[in-house]
Fold:
Amino acid sequence: VVDTDKTEKVQLILENVSIINEEGAGICVEQADKVFITLADGSTNKIVSNSFTGNEDTNIDGAIFSREDLTLNGSGTLKITSAAHGIVSKDDLVLTGGVYQIQSEKQGLSGKESVRIADETFTITSGTDAIHSEDTDEDTKGFVYITGGVLTLAAGGDGISSSYVVQADGGSFDISTSSTETDTSTKGIKAQKYVILKDGTYQLATADDGIHCNGNVYVCGGTYSINSGDDGIHADDGAAISGGSIKISESYEGIEGLTIDITGGQIDITASDDGVNAAGGRDGSSMEKGQDPFVS
Structure:
């Protein structure tokens, strides 16, 4: 437990650490200014949280749980098994180094104000969203920003989900989603306002849309292989593609938006309905396929 003065910065160095908690978090940050968890070079560390049933009053729900800004760095390995979330920050969650293997019954990574990732290796198997950021208090918070790394995500919800923006400037993504619950969102990459993909390699096998935004999608570069149970790329507002190589091998509709602007890139689409649909947009995945909400 880290519980110190609000102005204090705290660093924890994990060097071949094993923490098993039958009830609650393995590491819990109650108060500090910022906390840094460093994975020592060459180390393998393990954190297991087997239950959270006694934490209803405290809302502690992650194997690593922080009420403050949390940064994980270093070059070691961290293995997490959690009966709830994997790593949680109620402020910003930043990961700038290390190798992570996370198995969680709920979200793998959760940052209220943001999740920021640079050049790590992640293998996440999660019962709900693999990476999630949501802030209902501020419109410009709750974002996911990724600059690189290797991410293998198998989610029972969305692969990457944000209440504001998902932006990726690079990285290698292998995302699969599925759920036995019919009302669960199982999109590959999802955001409420913007999805901005500038570079990277994306292999998406999703039960719902591969890439989805309630606002606008921008694809500026990168390589995409999408196998979707619904739309390959869906924007409620506009979808703009200015570069990249996109292969949608299976979809209901390949690219759908209220407006679609294609100025570059190579696109190969296989769809059971429209390949490109600029009359759709706000039809929503919950609507029955084939039902057109626009009546002229």
